Amino acid sequence: MTIAMIGTWRMAETGITPAMAQLRQGKSAGDALVTAIQAVEDDPFYQSVGFGGLPNAAGVVETDAAYMDGDTFQIGALAGARDIAHPIAVARALSQEPANNLLVGPGATEYASTHGFPLKNMLTEKAAKQWAAKRQELTAKDLNPYDGHDTVGMVALDAGGHMTVGTSTSGLFMKRTGRVGDSPLPGAGYYVDSTIGGAAATGMGEDLMKASLCYQTVQLMGNGLSASEALREAVYPFIARLAALGQHPREFSYVALSPSGDWGIATNVEFSFAVAQDDGKTQIYLATPNGDHPDIQPVTAAWLAKEDAGR
Amino acid sequence: MTIAMIGTWRMAETGITPAMAQLRQGKSAGDALVTAIQAVEDDPFYQSVGFGGLPNAAGVVETDAAYMDGDTFQIGALAGARDIAHPIAVARALSQEPANNLLVGPGATEYASTHGFPLKNMLTEKAAKQWAAKRQELTAKDLNPYDGHDTVGMVALDAGGHMTVGTSTSGLFMKRTGRVGDSPLPGAGYYVDSTIGGAAATGMGEDLMKASLCYQTVQLMGNGLSASEALREAVYPFIARLAALGQHPREFSYVALSPSGDWGIATNVEFSFAVAQDDGKTQIYLATPNGDHPDIQPVTAAWLAKEDAGR
């Protein structure tokens, strides 16, 4: 059996590299997924996930995360959660509860606290400064405040053919208190069935939740389509439908992986992602939208240096 | 053009009857849906929706609701919300925002408060007494606390062919603080496309969220299946899949409606629902599971008298 992982954005590589080492040692897709996403959550350089994520309009970091097991369909998720150091680890624990698997707001923090998970102030000095500057700018001009909303979403496949999917994000910069996007929402933000494959989304949650495109992608893979074909058939017609309604669809990006290691992406914006298979290294790619056939190239050293500048 | 509404459980009739009068007067599917669901939210006799809903483990009523427009795919939803008199009206207002369409926890109440929606203590004396009794019983024995979880979910069709869907619930009795089920989750709890039809779910949210069956039902209707056929093809195979995994699937019930007025239901438990079409009266039906072909009969006067006893 093959092993593989795919994840959204350049940041995914930070987590996939140590997680693939675990998969090679025979660890489960559940362990690898949590290792990978937790590494991204812990890294304050990434300002849309976990520690160092950009805060909401009130200056508070609120996180959303989800975990799904493709063998059992068990789901755990949290949304609008504060002070949880590792949202993905809490989501996985929630997936193992007999009920109360999706917790929002103070109840999510209460669960994490009473179940021994580390709590942490997720606001960094850097993020607090950006919030203060943005606030001043928004007061001075009449700007659309919603910039960053890059979710890390990953699909993992272990040597036993077990698949998992997970997402984690601090959501829209300057969002309203309690605002939630697609990341904790099954079907829209993620879906996985170990017998077929998995998919995860990133982009403007308010648009991504208008259709269950991760669920549909997995269904289409179940009908025999490759990961790329399934994403193409699910994602682009819906974006076109929104455009035809005059809705100016915002960012949509997806990754998908099958149990054979076949992978694909779909996007309507420039989109980086990371893939690792078997004993190969983690490769970061850059996709450029081109109708429904994105151009995909390995990133260059120059691109990576620019992306990682200021680290 | 025809007009029609369908809604989950006997309680739906309380709202559909006044809402159908509005549809007959030419009002929109949006107005009718809010009228219908708000009538159920206002009625303290129904203990799983709105005012009089049963509280969480901490003794607090927390509500979830969603509104979706089938012409535009705009969605508004709230989850784990306290003190909001009419969750469905707030969900509709959220669907009209350019972003921040799904709000959870204190942020949802803040939005309702700052946008002039009435606030209300949703706990009735009757519900508080039931909570106290249940708490005592749970302390005395080791019982599964999760009884009531009946969401009101409705689909509306107006004379212009415009369709909407909405859900509202106080969720599981004795749920954890912040617990959310499928009701505010698009695809799992509800979906509508005015060109195809709409669907809504009720049952054990933790299981219903394991697949986007409302989304899939609408897709299947788009492939030419009737509402009944689409529900049959989407719902029962997934329940069978969970059963094959040894998961003892809990309650699944769905209603669906097409723009021609064709309707259907699927359920694995005894399930009442209400339907109204054109100028006919609202009919309450009782469905009894029978494989994937539920037996559907109009309710008897005796059944209704028993259901409404104690009002």
TrEMBL record, chains A, B:
Amino-acid positions noted as binding substrate in the UniProt annotation, renumbered to this chain: 179-182, 202-205
Cellular component GO terms held in the UniProt record: cytoplasm
Annotated active site: 151 (nucleophile)
Annotated site residues (Cleavage) in this chain: 150-151
GO terms of molecular function: hydrolase activity, acting on carbon-nitrogen (but not peptide) bonds, in linear amides
InterPro entries from the UniProt entry: Ntn_hydrolases_N, Peptidase_T2
Protein name (Swiss-Prot/TrEMBL): L-asparaginase
Source organism of this protein record: Schleiferilactobacillus shenzhenensis LY-73
